[in-house]
């Protein structure tokens, strides 16, 4: 249990004045260097879970349970303490990529400024760092660094957002429907870069998605969520092929097979490059 | 489940107040004849400029007419004219807005230029000009204000139509071979009516103010008619001696405008909430 | 003869943004044709042009031998009856102020003389016709009196489909009908479309970015990229070597390995 990075225990979230909890007894752990998927349909509570971790829950919601991170219970910390304890250790990437950067400030400037508010670096060092991480996610720092966000495509911005998050050297990156607003091919590219840097830096990643194929492909372990509860948990392979819960079964049966593709056994041999 | 069906009971307090007060005004308008203690036109030179008393609740004016009776009678006149003006403005403005927004292109451009041209003048000045041309009478004042006021509705409707046109159910309606008129009736008017009612209610207050102002400067009701604005004009000469002559009609106008504002604002919020509920 | 022939259809918005570039395609009656493309590939423009909601610059479209959009009033009426559409966003496609039965019956009300084959008895009330249509798309009869905001996304899409098939069109254009739905609901809608296609032999033009959905529903697939057809093939040739590079990429991204 030593390598456990974050663990959510018996998390309940209820809207004030309502008896039906939005999240019910959610238990979820992420180990160091793991890629974890959290899948579910809209309204299943997957985004709410990530918001509980980052302290972004609306004030009208009551929370109980425990989110342990580095010996602290995140739910008990005040905003200020949370910031002090967590600092920049948890990065967050949103679905709506247009919100990640202010449109009229150059990417490079925004990155260096963000870096310098969190890490003590000189201007030169932070620029160096920004360029490095941009390269890491496959963006040419020479051009991108001086561009305005509106000059970039959605995929490029999302990659820059990944780069930005990486520059702060987080221990955990939470990606909430990161690719939903992107084209399939672009989304895949972003995910591949994310996987690459994850391997290099050894940080943990939580991928929140409704896309089963994406979760199967890019994560080691999957949590399946339905109506505020976690109904199944297991290695991606297990969830895909040997699921137990009827809801998981229903979800998996709804993933349409490509012709000749067998979703239950390993699909890899059948595919043509 | 039916969040949109707010009843009379769970409306905000200001709206309730607005509705109650408007009902009160309606009673004044429809049953005023019975409430009036005197004939509002009855001249009684023996009791000129009396102050408040049991016989004359609000006193009498320079010709001995009972002020309370005149204000009650004036309510019918003033508010009635306000409502009629708004209804006429809606009748003129809404079809123009619909045609303009729905057909777009040249027709739209022509209407919009006309509206822009009218908008360059402040509406009060324009109303004075038109009323002045037509000659002082209550009918002419209504015509003058309608000519200025229809723009509000035309613009409101046009902008809403432009927004609704983006909705896919309008496209679906076209694909279903519905005629333009049918599309408007089925898909556009139901969305417009609540907004028009809400804006109209606020506007009644504004128009009452406008009518009274025009009457005050002598372009509307003639002095013997107890229209509130005309009453103000009437009492002007005696203001220093008997302020009541101007105070009561002034108060009546102020309160009425306020009441319609409350009602209109409440309705606006109500329909907005409804819309949100429906979108959900 | 082909039901729908599109020849060198070209449409550009501004000088440099070409939505469709010399798009040519022939479609037989019956079956599902899938058009795959990402955003900006021109696939939605194609749908709007075929429905006469947008004009085009060059080329011609023939539907049952008639130029689209037809000039004569009678031809135009027939075309409106024969070509229907299912939209991506069912919420925006249903008027929130109308009860479901009024929404569904809008097309039939415009074609009073049409007696759909699924109505067996005479003298049915309008609501009965509407509830019959609801049953055809797998919804309960009670839904006729509800309003769109009381329905879930999938149910709304079913209502939208019911409206589209009420005139028994020979061509049904579906523009990303499943894109804004949950996975489980997506599957149900696709199954419904498949079933309806088999029952009525209408042609479905299925436009989507999701290659899995397209392979589930369609026999023929057209791959569109930046307004140009890059690939056009039969489902059984999906994995053939001569597939266009872009098609291969799309398949690879969708696959699980």
From TrEMBL, chain A:
Membrane topology: Peripheral membrane protein
Residue ranges annotated for the ABC transporter domain, each copy included: 6-252
Chemical reaction(s) catalysed: Ni(2+)(out) + ATP + H2O = Ni(2+)(in) + ADP + phosphate + H(+)
SUPFAM superfamilies: P-loop containing nucleoside triphosphate hydrolases (SSF52540)
Keywords: ATP-binding, Cell membrane, Ion transport, Membrane, Nickel, Nickel transport, Nucleotide-binding, Translocase, Transport
Source organism: Natronobacillus azotifigens
Subunit structure of this chain's protein: The complex is composed of two ATP-binding proteins (NikD and NikE), two transmembrane proteins (NikB and NikC) and a solute-binding protein (NikA).
UniProt EC number: 7.2.2.11
Highest rank taxon of the organism: Bacteria
Upper classification of the organism: Bacteria, Bacillati, Bacillota, Bacilli, Bacillales
Record's protein name: Nickel import system ATP-binding protein NikD
Gene3D superfamilies in UniProt: P-loop containing nucleotide triphosphate hydrolases (3.40.50.300)
From TrEMBL, chain B:
Residue ranges of the TM segments: 7-31, 79-102, 192-217, 237-264
Main localization category: membrane
Keyword tags: Cell membrane, Membrane, Transmembrane, Transmembrane helix, Transport
Signal peptide bounds: none
Entry's Gene Ontology BP terms: transmembrane transport
Keyword Transmembrane helix: yes
Intracellular or extracellular location(s): Cell membrane
GO CC aspect terms: plasma membrane
Pfam families: BPD_transp_1
Classification via InterPro entries: ABC_transport_permease, BP-dependent_transpt_permease, MetI-like, MetI-like_sf
Superkingdom classification of source: Bacteria
Membrane topology: Multi-pass membrane protein
Keyword Plastid: no
Coiled-coil residue windows: none
Family as reported in the entry's similarity comment: Belongs to the binding-protein-dependent transport system permease family. OppBC subfamily.
NCBIfam families hit by this protein: Opp2C
Record-given protein name: ABC transporter permease subunit
Organism whose genome encodes this protein: Natronobacillus azotifigens
From TrEMBL, chain C:
Species the sequence originates in: Natronobacillus azotifigens
PANTHER family: TRANSPORT ATP-BINDING PROTEIN
Name the record gives this protein: Dipeptide/oligopeptide/nickel ABC transporter ATP-binding protein
Keywords assigned by UniProt, alphabetized: ATP-binding, Nucleotide-binding, Transport
Domain ABC transporter: residue ranges: 4-251
Matching InterPro entries: AAA+_ATPase, ABC_transp_ATP-bind, ABC_transporter-like_ATP-bd, ABC_transporter-like_CS, P-loop_NTPase
GO biological process: transmembrane transport
GO molecular function: ATP binding; ATP hydrolysis activity
């Amino acid at each position: 249990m030593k390598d456990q990075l974050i663990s959510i225990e018996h998390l309940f979230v209820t809207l004030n004045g309502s008896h039906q909890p939005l999240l019910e007894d959610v238990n979820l752990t992420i180990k160091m260097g793991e890629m974890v998927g959290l899948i579910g349909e809209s309204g299943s509570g997957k985004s709410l879970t990530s918001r509980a971790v980052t302290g972004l829950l609306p004030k009208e919601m009551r929370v109980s349970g425990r989110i342990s991170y580095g010996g602290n219970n995140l739910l008990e910390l005040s905003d200020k303490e949370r910031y002090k304890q967590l600092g920049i250790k948890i990065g967050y990437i949103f679905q709506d990529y247009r919100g990640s950067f202010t449109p009229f400030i150059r990417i490079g400037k925004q990155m260096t400024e963000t870096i310098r508010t969190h890490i003590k670096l000189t201007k030169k060092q932070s620029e160096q760092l920004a360029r490095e991480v941009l390269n890491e996610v496959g963006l040419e720092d020479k051009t991108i660094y001086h561009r305005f966000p509106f000059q970039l495509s959605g995929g490029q911005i999302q990659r820059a957002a990944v780069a930005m998050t990486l520059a702060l050297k987080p221990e955990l990156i939470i990606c909430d429907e990161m690719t939903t607003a992107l084209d399939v091919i672009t989304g895949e590219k972003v995910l591949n870069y994310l996987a690459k840097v994850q391997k290099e830096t050894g940080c943990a990643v939580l991928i929140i998605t409704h896309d089963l194929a994406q979760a199967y492909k890019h994560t080691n372990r999957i949590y399946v969520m339905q109506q505020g509860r976690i109904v199944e948990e297991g290695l991606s392979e297990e969830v895909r092929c040997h699921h137990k819960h009827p809801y998981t079964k229903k979800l998996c049966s709804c993933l349409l097979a490509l012709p000749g593709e067998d979703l239950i056994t390993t699909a890899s041999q059948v595919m043509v490059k | 489940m039916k969040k949109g069906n707010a009843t009379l009971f769970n409306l905000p307090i200001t709206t309730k107040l607005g509705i109650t007060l408007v009902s009160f005004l309606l009673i004044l308008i429809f049953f005023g004849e019975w409430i009036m203690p005197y004939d509002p036109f009855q001249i009684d030179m023996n009791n000129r400029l009396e102050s408040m008393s049991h016989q004359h609740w609000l006193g009498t004016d320079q010709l001995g007419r009972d002020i309370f009776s005149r204000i009650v009678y004036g309510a019918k006149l003033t508010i009635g004219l306000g409502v009629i003006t708004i209804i006429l403005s809606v009748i003129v403005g809404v079809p123009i807005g619909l045609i303009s927004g729905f057909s777009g292109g040249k027709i739209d451009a022509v209407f919009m230029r006309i509206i822009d041209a009218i908008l360059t003048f402040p509406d009060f000045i324009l109303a004075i000009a038109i009323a002045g041309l037509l000659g002082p009478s209550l009918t002419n004042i209504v015509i003058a204000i309608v000519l200025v006021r229809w723009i509000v509705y035309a613009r409101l409707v046009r902008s809403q139509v432009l927004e609704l046109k983006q909705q896919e159910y309008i496209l679906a309606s076209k694909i279903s071979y519905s005629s333009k008129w049918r599309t408007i009736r089925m898909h556009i008017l139901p969305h417009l009516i609540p907004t028009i009612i809400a804006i109209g209610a606020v506007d009644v207050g504004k128009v009452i103010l406008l009518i009274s102002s025009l009457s005050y400067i002598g372009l509307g009701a003639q002095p013997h008619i107890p229209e509130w604005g005309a009453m103000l004009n009437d009492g002007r000469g005696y203001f220093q001696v008997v302020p009541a002559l101007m105070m009561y009609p002034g108060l009546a106008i102020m309160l009425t405008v306020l009441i319609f504002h409350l009602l209109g604002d409440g309705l606006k919020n109500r329909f907005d909430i409804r819309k949100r509920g429906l979108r959900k | 003869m082909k039901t729908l022939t599109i020849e060198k259809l070209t449409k550009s918005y501004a000088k440099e943004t070409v939505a469709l570039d010399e798009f040519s395609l022939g479609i037989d009656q019956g079956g599902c044709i899938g058009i795959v493309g990402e955003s900006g590939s021109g696939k939605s423009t194609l749908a709007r042009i075929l429905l006469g909601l947008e004009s085009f610059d060059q080329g011609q479209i023939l539907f049952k031998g008639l130029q689209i959009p037809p000039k004569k009033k009678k031809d135009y009426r027939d075309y409106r009856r024969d070509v229907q559409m299912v939209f991506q966003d069912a919420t925006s496609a249903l008027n929130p102020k109308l009860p479901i039965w009024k929404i569904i019956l809008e097309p039939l009300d415009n074609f009073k003389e049409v007696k759909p084959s699924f109505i067996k008895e005479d003298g049915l009330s309008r609501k009965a016709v509407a509830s019959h249509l609801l049953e055809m798309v797998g919804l309960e009869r009670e839904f006729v009196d509800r309003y769109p905001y009381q329905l879930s996304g999938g149910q709304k899409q079913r209502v939208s489909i019911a409206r589209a098939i009420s005139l028994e069109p020979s061509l049904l254009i579906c523009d990303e009908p499943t894109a804004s739905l949950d996975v489980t609901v997506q599957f149900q809608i696709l199954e419904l479309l498949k079933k309806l296609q088999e029952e009525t032999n209408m042609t479905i033009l299925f436009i989507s970015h999701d290659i899995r959905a397209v392979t589930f529903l369609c026999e023929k697939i057209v791959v569109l990229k930046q307004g140009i057809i890059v690939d056009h093939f039969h489902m059984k040739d999906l994995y053939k070597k001569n597939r266009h590079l872009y098609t291969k990429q799309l398949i690879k991204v969708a696959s699980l390995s």
